[in-house]
Each structure stands twice: as C-alpha cells, then as structure tokens.
Design the sequence.
C-alpha cells in the first residue's frame, strides 16, 4: 500500500491529509487562532506566594501570571492503573516555594478570561503510545485497557525502557501494538527530554522550554513506524523545520520528506479539496448505485444504507448482501475521514441469511483495521441494527469546519414555503383584528413572495375579500425563507 502525507501550510491554518493508494482517508486541521498552550513547558519564576490560597503566581512570560496550587507541586498521575505512588498531603505553600524561585512548570489549563494559566510541576511528555514521566521509576497502564493480560504485556514492553531518566504510562492507543512501536516512542521521548534539559540550562527564567508540537510535527510523531512512503510539504519554511525535526527525532523518515514547489496546489493532487467538501454531505454514493445517509447528533451518529439504483443481477437477498458488503468499506472510510466518534448506529439493509450477517460484520472489522482510533463492534440487535463505538480523538470534521446554520438554528430543516405563506395569512388576520389599518404590505423572501403571488394567490385573494382590504407583496432578497414582516399602512 502506498501511503502519503500532504501538508498544506498557510499563516492562519495547517492542514494534513493522509492518502492511501491515492484515496483520501484522514484530514487533520489546526487553526492558529485556536491553538492553546496546554502541555507547554516553561522555566518560570515565582512572582508571588499566597499562603491564604495555598497557591503561588508564577511568571512564565505571558501577559498574565500563571497559577500554581500547592497540590500541583508534587508529582501525580491521573486515570492510570498499576502506578505505585505515595499518599501525599499538600504542605504549606510557603514551605514549598519562595518568591523569586525558578521552577520548571507545565501548563495544564489555558488562560481563560481574567484568569492566568493553571500550572503543575509534574512534568509529562506524551507520544502516540506512551507518556514519559521524568524522574519516575515505574510503568502505569491506562485503566481503559480492560484485558489484564494485555495490561501485563504492555507493562513488560514499556518496562524494558525504564532507566534513571524516567518511567512511562502506557496510553489506551497502545492496545495491541508491538515491541517496535513502543521502542520508537520510548527513544523519542527520552531524546525530547534531553533537549528540554539542555534548553533549561541555557535559557533564562520566564521562557518557554517546550511547546506542544504543531499539527504537522504531531502527525509525523504519531505516524512513526506506520509505513509512510512520502511526505510532501508546500511551505519551504515548514519543510526546513520539519526536515530538522525528522533528523533529530525520526531519522527514518528524513529522506521521505520533500518540498512541493509545483504550480498546482498540493491538495489538488488527489482531489483532496473536493473530498473534504463531499465529507460534509449527508449522502455518500456507492459505486454500485446504493448510498449511505450519515447523521451526526450530540448523542450518536447514525448511518443508514440504501440500495438506491442498485438492482443486482441475481435475487433480492444477493443484491442486499452485496450492497451491505460494499457499504462496510465506505463506512470505515467515512468514520476516519469525518473523524466520527462515540456511539455509532448502523442500519444495514435487512438480511435474512445469518451467514450474510456474519460476513458483513467481518468485512466491517477488516475495513476498520487500519483505523488508529480504538473501536468496538457489537453484533446485530433484535431490530437489525449494528451498534459500535469509536474513540473520540479530536473534534469531528463537521465541528471544525462548520457552524450552526443561522437560518434553521441547527434544526437541519427550515419551514416549507407553503408553511410560511400560511403563517403570513394568519398574521394578517391577527393584526387586522387587533389594529385599525387601511391596507397591508407583506415583505418576504423571494420564494415565499413568488408563492403568495402564484400557487397561493387564490388564498391571498380570498383573504383580501374577507377583510375587505388591499394586501400587497414585496420581495426582500436578503430575507431568509422563514423571515417576513406584515406592515400596516
């Protein structure tokens, strides 16, 4: 399989496309205005100690001083099993830090409003499968990995790389990975920590020692060992920085990176722009003539499969089976491309043959095999639905690129032209009873105005006779379909 990463960089936005065998599979987007500082490591300086709050303010070079609570000054590990640690009671803040003291701190919460960033001295460095804990000597395993056998296996793998430099937490994403992937991450994190220590020795207080990697760098870090054949970057400056990053941390990918200097935009190479637009549509066409309908809600995502124009060549059951089988490939791709997570309900076309059901489920599992997000698939329910879950790794493509429709306010539908016309007629009757007026003027959207003077003209004429007054209609090009005004004259 040929795998390429296309990296498109502009001053305001970075986009990364993962293309497998010429077909877009994943899109990652990061906008500069929405980048936070969580995960950044600073050489800070204590500017003020507040015993009454058991906290201190630390200058890390930002506009507002950051906040460090006494409970965040000692190492702590969250959401991890098998980690041996002392039961620590936070001491007096005045005994833990002093004004003017230099501290290495990490941001755990972005500044918000008038509040500065929240800090901790418990430094951690994440990678794809591991979290590095400097100075620790143990291995923790994510509680979300349910199998005790798998926990033990991963603990042994990570334990091979523990030394005096630090220990590790094995992340949920590591479930099922091998020794090589764990080794890649461990080496990367230790080298990164060494670079941070060197910067600390050279830098002055109130300076940044480590910034969580920008999108392009994070992608390359997370895709180490996944068989990338080519990396194309359309920004010369970013290419040079990425080249240095690869040489320092991922040398096996260095020769695969190249600067894209062609006249043709990099995302046009594999029709990426159009694929992104299509990934925002509800309907996904299948090659056979069938189609999927995807609806994303707060609670879950539903996927409905239909045969559409596909009639098959044998019998109905075979047609249904082949459509469902084809749909499994499309579903797996759409989940990755749109980054849909949480609960997913799939309504396959009803199949009578249990062997067909089993083969469709098997095909779906195989199709999801290259998905890095953790997933779980249940069998067919009594209603013929397949329930599955997919781990949320980031916001869905729709949430990143789209906002609530100002016209329908997120309902995903608007009142029909006919409905709005009848609302206008009722409004005229209401106003006529409540107020004295010689005549009425209706201002409405072009489609509604045309309907009042066309298909609904007979109803408007009857209304005029009933109230004994003239009603005129005017088009307002800027009005939404549901918007109208009834003006008394």
Sequence:
């Amino acid at each position: 399989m040929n795998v390429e990463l296309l990296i498109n960089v502009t001053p305001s936005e970075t986009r990364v496309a993962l293309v497998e065998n010429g077909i877009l599979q994943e899109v990652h987007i990061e906008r500069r205005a929405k980048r936070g500082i969580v995960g950044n490591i600073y050489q800070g300086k204590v500017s003020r100690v507040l015993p009454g709050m058991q906290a201190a303010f630390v200058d890390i070079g930002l506009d507002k001083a950051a906040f460090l609570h006494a409970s965040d000054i000692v190492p702590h590990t969250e959401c991890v099993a098998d980690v041996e640690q002392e039961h620590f009671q936070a001491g007096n803040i005045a005994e833990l830090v002093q004004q003017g003291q230099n501290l290495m701190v990490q941001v755990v919460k972005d500044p918000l409003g008038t509040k500065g960033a929240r800090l901790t001295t418990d430094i951690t460095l994440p990678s794809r499968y591991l979290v590095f804990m400097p100075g620790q000597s143990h291995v923790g395993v994510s509680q979300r990995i349910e199998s005790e056998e798998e926990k033990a296996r991963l603990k042994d793998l990570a334990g091979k790389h523990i030394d005096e430099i630090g220990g590790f937490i094995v992340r949920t994403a590591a479930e099922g990975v091998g020794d090589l992937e764990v080794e890649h991450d461990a080496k990367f994190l230790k080298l990164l920590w060494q670079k941070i220590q060197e910067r600390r020795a050279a830098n002055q207080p109130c300076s940044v020692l480590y910034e969580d990697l920008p999108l392009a760098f994070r992608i390359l870090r997370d895709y180490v060992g996944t068989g990338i054949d080519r990396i194309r970057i359309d920004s010369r400056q970013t290419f040079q920085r990425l080249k240095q990053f690869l040489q320092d941390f991922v040398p096996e990918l260095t020769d695969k990176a190249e600067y894209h200097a062609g006249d043709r935009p990099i995302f046009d190479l594999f029709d990426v722009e159009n694929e992104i637009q299509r990934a925002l549509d509800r309907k996904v066409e299948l090659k056979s003539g069938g189609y999927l309908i995807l609806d994303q809600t707060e609670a879950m995502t539903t996927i409905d499969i239909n045969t559409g124009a596909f009639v098959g060549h044998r019998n109905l059951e075979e047609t249904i089976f082949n459509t469902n089988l084809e749909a499994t490939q499309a579903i797996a791709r759409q989940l990755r491309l749109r980054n849909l997570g949480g609960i997913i309900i799939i309504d396959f076309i009803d199949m009578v043959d249990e062997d067909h059901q089993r083969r469709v489920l098997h095909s779906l599992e195989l199709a999801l095999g290259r998905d890095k997000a953790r997933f779980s698939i249940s069998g067919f329910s009594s209603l013929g639905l397949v329930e599955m879950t997919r781990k949320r790794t980031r916001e869905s493509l729709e949430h990143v690129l789209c906002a609530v429709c100002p016209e329908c306010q997120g309902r995903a539908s608007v009142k029909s032209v006919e409905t709005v016309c009848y609302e206008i007629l009722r409004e005229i009757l209401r106003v006529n009873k409540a107020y004295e007026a010689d005549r009425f003027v209706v201002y409405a959207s072009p489609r509604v105005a045309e309907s009042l003077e066309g298909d609904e003209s007979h109803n408007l004429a009857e209304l005029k006779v009933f109230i004994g007054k003239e009603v005129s209609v005017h088009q307002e090009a800027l009005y939404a379909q549901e918007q109208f005004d009834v003006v008394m004259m």
